Model the fold of this input.
Amino acid sequence: MIRLNFYLFLIAFLSLPFGSIAQECNFSITGYIEDVHSAEGLEFTTIFIEENGKGVVTDDQGAFTFRNICRGEYHLKVSHIGCETRRIFIQIKSDTSIVVRLHHHSELLQEILVQDEASDRSKTGTRNTIDNKNIVENADKNLAELVTTVTGVTSLKNGSNISKPIIHGLKGNRVAVLNNGELQAGQQWGNDHAPEIDPFSADKITVIKGAEGVRYGGNAIGGIILIEPGPIPYDPHIHGLAQYLFNTNGRSHGANFSLNKGQEFFQWRLKAGYSKGGDLKTPDYFLNNTGKENAHASVQLNRTKDQWSHQAYYSFYSTDLGVLRGAHIGNTTDLESAISRDQPFYTEENFSYGLEAPRQFVQHHLWKIKSKYFFSDHNFMQLSYAGQSNQRKEFDVRRSGRSDIPALSLGLLAHNFQLIYHKETKKDWHLESGLQFRINDNENNFNTGIFPLIPNYESYQPSVFFSSKKSGAHFAFDFGARYDYKLLTIQRFTKTTPPVLEKPKHNFHNYTFLAGVGSSNLKNGSTRLQVGVVQRSPEINELYSEGLHQGVASIEEGDRTLNPETGIKILWTSDINIQNKLFFEVSFFTNPIRDFIFLELQDKPRLTIRGAFPLYFYKQANANLSGVDFLNKWVINSQLTWINKFAYVRGQNIETKTPLIDIPSGEFQSTFRFEKERIKRLQNFRAEITGSYVLQQNRFPIVPFFPDPPPGYFLLNLNLGVVVPIGENRLSILLSGENLLNQKYRSFLNRLRYFADEQGLNLGLNLRYKF
Amino acid sequence: MKSMYYIGIFLLCFCLFSCDDEEPMEPMEEELITTLIYDLEDDQGNTVQLKFEDLDGDGGNDPIITGGTFQEGVTYTGSMSLLNESETPAEDITEEIEEEDDEHQFFFSSTIAGTISYLDADGNGNPLGLSSSIAFSETGDGTLRVILRHEPEKGATNVAQGDITNAGGETDIEVSFPITVE
Done:
């Protein structure tokens, strides 16, 4: 008897520290794993409970069940071939049911009719998402390179380190980039100014091809890129990721880490990274002075309490990058002699990490606070303030030791205040209205010793918008309108002797409209039609730029009498899903733009002491862009997938009947992917080979001195990935080969194509440890 | 409580913003070269002056270019001077070139046949061109072109002989003078 009591005591004692775990072990966890794209259950998904080692596989409906689970806290690991493994924290107090959505077809359009999709999304639009897995696997790429994986998106490069995204042929001032909901306040006007964002700071990146500027503003005639930090998963333990990256071409090393913790009412996430690389190499020679050094960091804090939810966010980005030394030229004679060479001037035998002029040093800060008050589950009010500070310094090769003094030094300080009211009616209408007030203050540092390219300015932009949408199981409607007023005050010196300070002012009124319809049958696909009208007021460079653009040896002059341009983008997208085996997606668009602002070459060159330069004035004319995007995915069997993409866009100045500048040529891309869920201890093995063929651009404006576009080229890339489980954690190894054939080529969309070849073979190693 | 917090931030930002109302500083064009004067003299003391002058820099008023008349078969000794006359007093850029003589070289070419040679050299013994000599071997009207390159590859093929083809670098000056040879 005593003995028995002792045992009872022992059992009670042992179970004390574990709370009441031992007492109730009759709970069940049931669940359903769903493909975000088709909303169908995902068969053969493995669910594994880390704490007790139990595992199950989903049935053909995507359902699973665990029985006899004790009360307590658990981590579920959900893995499916081709998807990033998910870790989910749950607390079991009773029978629990969960639904997990996996993004199984990341190439495909984001499905429009997922019911609990964030409510600010237009469901008639055409949007592609680059998920966290893709971002992390490509963490050594810049934002523009990353988004070019989306059909119809290309990039304009300025050498190897600077690229700007092009959506359906438009870029720069006509593509809005939003970081955590804030319009990126950088020097977007410059063709050699890349967006100042590190993609690693994002959880997902969404490319919107339509003119959905109602909610976001920002002159989005061409399209929108959303960089979003994403929700922090509920898990009271610290989890995260550490990453190391290496590339043979440029011998770059990089490291990133991310940490997050999500308690019931408070969540945080911290991310940071650093990378450094040296001179890149074409198949034949080093590209002198093409190294770069990047650093970034971000912090996200979320707090929810009662009806309130608050977010604080800060991100920092810094880049110091070199521009090919041989591309720095003085005038058109230099340009001609550079063009006639096989190898650029200043090409050196040896590799170097050194950075000298010409180079760019850019830093960007973003800080934001956002509070939401929920009146009910779907009705809320949101108030936010965000500030941004952008510092850009560009160094040129100059006389008398002035190469260390920036030739261009700009500081931009931006503020944005926003108030949004969101309401859902009983009849499933989502209504949203909002007020915004945006202030930008751009200043030159006048110690550069060079007359500034753009003057100092301040802009004040109050805006109001309204949008409404309704979506059901098989249809969606969308309507929205926006009005922006913009007051632009300029402070500039005239180019007279002596210079005189003048302070002109401009007022602009811009209207934006959006209307769309969508129809969908989840099993077979959907069709969407969207019409967006966006007015864009001329930017500072179009009104006032004045001076020489080094790399292209031309003088560009703004015109202060320019009017806003009006773009109408009509976008039709259809996708067909044949039994989850064969997918087709096709988009057609046409984008007529009235009073399109462009640079027009003048007959008479400008004579200066450095010789004669081609002279360009900003002019307006009616233009049109049209094109098609096509994607086909064939799931041949559970291991083999074949994806084909094609995109083409045509841009024309209707008045002069000449092609627009910098329009991408047609591009074909084909990818074979082999995946195997398990090879002995290794998981998620993947081999992927991609061939892409870029056609020669035969439509281009004729410019004296400049040679015709380079011929088309074929590139082959390879990726090999595998996951090694280490205890509860995972080490992912990715080996990549770019330009495997070491093809010597030049790209039409590289502004330095006159001077040097593109990069040759690169082998990359990407290790990431998820814990 | 929350609203007070926001109002505070609004006020702070507006203050920061409104406090920042300084007048911009007048830009100083430091590297500007407004004027190139090429003084030539034969051994009889006859002089010719070629001059390029653009006092307001790029744009604005057109530059004033003054050509000259030479005698066939006569050797002229030339000296180059560069000025920034947008400043008072005018800044002598020739000194900057002399200080960085290894990073600069003048190149000459003429549509009228003749011989043009360097009379000076940098610290490494490579030609510079602030001092030069010219003799024309035919008569007629034509142009004489003067180019100043910054950071040329002075060691490249024929560059030391005054051939610009392989020189590279950036053009700091490129001017053409109308000339007559009698």
Remarks:
- The radius of gyration of chain B is 24 Å.
